[in-house]
Amino acid sequence: MKNFLIVGASSGIGLALAQSLQKQGHQIFTIARNHQVELENIGIKQILMDISKPLNNLSEHLPEILNGVAYCPGTINLKPFHRLSEEEIMNDFQVNTMGAVRVLQATFPALKKSQGASVLLFSTVASNLGMGFHASIALAKSGVEGLAKSLAAEWAINKIRVNVIAPSLTDTPLASKLLNTDEKKEASNKRHPLGRIGNVEDIVPMASLLLSEKSDWITGQIIGIDGGMGSLKP
Ligand SMILES: NC(=O)c1ccc[n+]([C@@H]2O[C@H](COP(=O)([O-])OP(=O)(O)OC[C@H]3O[C@@H](n4cnc5c(N)ncnc54)[C@H](OP(=O)(O)O)[C@@H]3O)[C@@H](O)[C@H]2O)c1
Fold first, then answer.
1. Ligand 1 atom nearest to CA at 125
2. Rounded distance, CA 74 to CA 99, Å?
3. What is the Cα–Cα distance from 151 to 88, expressed in whole angstroms?
4. What is the spatial distance between Cα 22 and Cα 25, in angstroms, rounded to a whole number?
């Protein structure tokens, strides 16, 4: 049994990942702003916290040794660049990037103690593939990718691995505005080389693998799970 912290586990990918890891017999701690009944029903310890602000004594709520952290909070704020306010850009940066910085600084001592821990961050296909109206999220997630690469190098000596999953459009509450009509869903499906958008079941197995010792020679990688969107033009 291992100890995992899943940040952003009240919905979407983080929720499905927490449920899957719990089923595998691990002890799971979660962070989100909102309480999640589905997690309570399976006995998962929930820490209610806003990671876009400085964290208050996070380590007090966590075990002394952490075997892994997955950081899942994200935003989708798609707009023409000239209409993005500084406040919106800073909010995307706080939630996607600075939140990860805060959580990883707070959990580093516990990760180090495990001498084989794994950190998983989330980026987006739009960091690498230029996509119109994605300037703010691409800025924030490119920061996440840079952070992951740097930490993978810096923490290798502590046997802490750091990897990133970069999904394309995935059917979660975060993406609901982009998928709220059949027409939008169909158009999104068609944009992907494999003919469909993703769902949490496309992401969770890789997330789970990257957190486990089965991937213990993989670090510093940005893994696209995107139906071919990030690298193919059929
Ligand atoms: N879904 C997509 O199409 C898509 C595409 C590309 C990349 N991604 C990335 O994949 C990751 C997971 O996305 P998802 O679709 O599963 O998102 P989601 O359904 O919106 O879930 C995000 C989770 O993060 C938590 N969260 C958000 N802001 C927070 C804050 N300030 N403090 C604490 N917790 C916070 C939310 O809980 P509370 O609201 O309760 O705080 C929620 O549990 C994200 O990093 C996202 O950028 C998703």
1. 6
2. 10
3. 27
4. 5
Using CA positions, which residue lies closest to atom 25 of ligand 1?
8
pTM equals 0.98
CA angle 203, 148, 224 (to 5 degrees): 30
Q: Which of 28, 72, 185 to mutate to test ligand 1, by most ligand atoms within 8 A of the CB atom?
A: 72
Kindly give the confidence (pLDDT) of every residue in the chain, 234 residues in length, as a single tens digit, with 9 standing for 90 and above: 999 999 999 999 999 999 999 999 999 999 999 999 999 999 999 999 999 999 989 999 999 999 999 999 999 999 999 999 999 999 999 999 999 999 999 999 999 999 999 999 999 999 999 999 999 999 999 999 999 999 999 999 999 999 999 999 999 999 999 999 999 999 999 999 999 999 999 999 999 999 999 999 999 999 999 999 999 999
**Structural domains in the chain?**
3-168+201-224 (3.40.50.720)
Centre of ligand 1 from the C-alpha of residue 74, in Å: 4
Residue identifier of the C-alpha nearest atom 27 of ligand 1: 73
CA of 174 to the centre of ligand 1 (A): 6
